[in-house]
Q: What sequence folds into this?
């Protein structure tokens, strides 16, 4: 983040920058038919500590540990090499524990997503191994977009008594139109995953807008005998002045043994935002995702900060399995950026979940109000 | 701590300071009637890593992780805002995982307590959720003292499938007399906690002076069906020149369902210290607790450092439950401060524990010798 | 490491240096008779974060946490004091969680070992408590070598309801011959350990060159009733110009109750390396182990970096127990040092394991190829 200083070694060749984020949440749910869902909870969405840096101009590294949810998880932990190919194109290759380049929301950091939680597309059209995997990634950057290709095994914390699962993944984003104050974004991505060992039991589950209500999930029972998953998605969005728009959709098929039909997940989301205070949306054209905004008049300089109003509709369905499930939600939100790396978020979600599992069978509707105070370094 | 440099961003608006502490213990117990208590153990009282800083003059943040006892626990993790009300009064508000402002010993950091362990008042007259909770705290500072009001849910690492427990807490400290070399401290505090879900089973337990003898506890069997706790306490202390004195006492009542009488805990402690080398006690009049002393002649400058002799008597009782328990201890201690943030501590404890649990039924007495080497950044 | 800057407090008395390492592995095994061993896995050999520093010229401290293998483990966490005895001799004493000074490979940091894994001598002729223990260590440094004496209890994360196990350990290394470009190294070491409580059940296991194949171990069934272990070893090695050689061997006896014969482990390893690019081996004559090399022409300055070719033969046997086991391996390796703290390692291992356990009974042979990309700060 912009907040922290970068340290250099005496010879200038080595750089080192601490990184961190504190995202502190509170949320309450009401209106559900099930008392167990009408709860109020606090939680740390992210407590992250780490560092990044480089050696010379080509080698770069990063290491981040997430402390926020009851245990330590390694997030990005990688070493990479970057270079220019020509005046306008460049590349990098990385090895280590890598963050997926997959979907618009899924490629945006947890401290930069316009809503408190990523969309169901990012969350449900994903490999079983989740947002991170150990392996190698190559990315090519050109004036109109970028292409990322990744091959990974399991995450860093996984079992070593059997072969890793294998995931191949790619994403291509293009900006066919681009002006000083506006831009069109189109992208496509996909992945294919061969499952191994314990990963062959999958438990479909996603949340419709707040992770800190553990009783409120779109979920199915455990599925054994999954041999692999294949997923893909499309993105269409852009911004003109302070207003942005993003539509994402995707499908995932999990192959099951014994001649059973594929378990199928479909998800889409449509979202939009408006910086009332006039800032441009924090779109990063290099990697095709959101970053942090440049705030015109930060609160710390006596200004009002930046204010963004947001809305999202999203839908997800789990099909072709004994316990199908559906969910959709409509979110209204407001983001108040005190400066470029300090933010207060409010989300009001109207959600509907239809479940085949006995505990919450049938359709249930309700509202969730949630707030977050976050700082990123 | 004073030891580490503070880093600033290029524009001076962002500050960042690493924090840490290493508190390394060894202890031995003898004289108990139970062989299982006559043991010798080593342990890390605290291995803490974190950072603190600010953005502009008003926003401040901190994040600390404790690595010392078999797992990672998030300690303070918060964002806050501070401002002046007038020339002499100021306030701050914080949100996140917050350290209790409760009891004198309980409000003092683990690297600054005059004895190796906090008193039974701090440890037993406490909410079930412990020393930390997720929520919000407001504090008002005025020339004669300060007032803190806190509302929290569970700790950061807690379960999210049910509503958090709720704790409201307040503490008021006053310094009615104050001179250049002396001061009187009076304070009162209380809390009320509504318990929820798994928190409704409580297991009363506290230690009489060394946490690293796991077999030596004042403890009762598990109590189910607790619906809430209420506690309060009073503090009276002060210092004149290098000699300080502190008395604390409190009571906690845990409400039980089924018409059972409240489970009642009472505790008090009386302690005193003398800086043989003439330093003033490290009392912080802003928040009414101990910090680190200003050592006149640090060892690293060729001086003797600061030497403090301490003594404490403390007593705790668990009543109105199937397995009542009592304990008291008398501690003699010495603290050698090499400089303001490096300290060697020795504690000799004579303890007596009366237990109704079968394993250690009856009254048992013995001695514990313990030593700590600590550095704080 | 050399890479990171050292921070000093304003008065110059306090220093602070972040430390870290990222060692990222991938490996594949083939040729085994057991399909479960022919697997391909990724893993983080080390993800380490910490800091070290000093107060004044005598006091030093360090704290390191290892995040790489599914949980947080405290590694070195200690406070120490160092001073000169005369112009040529000096000493230090440390308290806290201490890294063994034991065997050549075992005393070398995981980021500096010439092979991807330490030898079976370092790994199998070791106390049950492993590479670290809480306690105190004194070291004496003189022109011809050093002597280290350590007394420790359990590791920092261990149980506190019973007395720690106790380990006494010593190592003496000498450099009887020494010139500008060459040196002879001889050393002897030993330890004696009294086991307590849960530590009395021991499960002999070591790996022959890749930890990230969890199915490939030299191992025996669990042994109960071990009361203590005694081990010793010898080292003979040295270098002349860019070529080094090291032979290590040792034996450990675990005493068993009930009049059973000692469980006996024997291990030896012979290894050699050649810096093709002419660097001297990174032998540290102060502590008698390897560090990081001084690379003549780092890649980041446009040079080729340093290239080292290595080879090792090692053998280990577990004897006098119901399920004896043996293993040996021959490794060919190459290390490419981009600069002094960035390294790519390749190891090709031909291994043979003879097991009495039912799952892998009999002799099995195969090959493992493994690679590592590592950076140390």
A:
């Amino acid at each position: 983040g912009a907040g922290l200083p970068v340290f250099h070694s005496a010879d200038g060749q080595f750089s080192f920058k601490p990184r961190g984020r504190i995202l502190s949440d509170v949320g309450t749910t009401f209106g559900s038919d099930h008392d167990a869902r009408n709860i109020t909870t606090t939680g740390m969405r992210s407590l992250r500590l780490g560092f990044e840096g480089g050696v010379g101009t080509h080698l770069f590294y990063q290491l981040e540990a997430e402390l926020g949810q009851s245990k330590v998880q390694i997030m990005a932990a990688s070493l990479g090499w970057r270079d220019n190919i020509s005046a306008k194109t460049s590349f990098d290759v990385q090895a280590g524990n890598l963050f997926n380049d997959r979907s618009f929301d899924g490629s945006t950091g947890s401290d930069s997503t316009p809503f408190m939680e990523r969309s169901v597309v990012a969350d449900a059209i994903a490999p079983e191994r989740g947002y991170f995997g150990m392996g190698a990634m190559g990315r090519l950057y050109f004036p109109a977009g970028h292409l990322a290709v990744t091959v990974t095994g399991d995450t860093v914390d996984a079992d070593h008594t059997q072969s890793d699962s294998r995931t191949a993944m790619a994403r291509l984003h293009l900006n066919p139109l681009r002006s000083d104050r506006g831009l069109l974004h189109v992208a496509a991505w996909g992945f294919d995953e061969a499952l191994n060992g314990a990963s062959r039991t999958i438990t479909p589950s996603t949340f419709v807008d707040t992770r800190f209500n553990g009783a409120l999930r779109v979920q199915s029972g455990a599925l054994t005998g999954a041999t692999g998953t294949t997923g893909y998605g499309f993105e269409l969005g852009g911004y003109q002045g302070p207003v942005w728009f993003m539509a994402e959709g995707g499908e995932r098929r999990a192959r099951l043994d014994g001649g059973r039909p594929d378990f199928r997940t479909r998800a889409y989301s449509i979202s939009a935002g408006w910086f009332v205070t006039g800032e441009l949306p924090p779109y990063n054209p290099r990697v095709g995702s959101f970053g942090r905004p440049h705030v015109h008049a930060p609160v710390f300089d006596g200004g009002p900060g930046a204010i963004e109003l947001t809305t999202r509709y999203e839908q997800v369905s789990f099909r072709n399995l004994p316990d199908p499930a559906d969910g959709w939600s409509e979110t209204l939100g407001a983001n108040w950026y005190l400066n470029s790396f300090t933010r207060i978020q409010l989300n009001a979600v109207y959600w509907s979940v239809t479940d085949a599992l006995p505990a919450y069978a049938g359709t249930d509707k309700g509202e969730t109000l949630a707030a977050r105070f976050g700082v990123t370094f």
In short: The radius of gyration of chain C is 21 Å. The mean pLDDT of chain C is 91. The longest helix of chain C spans residues 120-124.
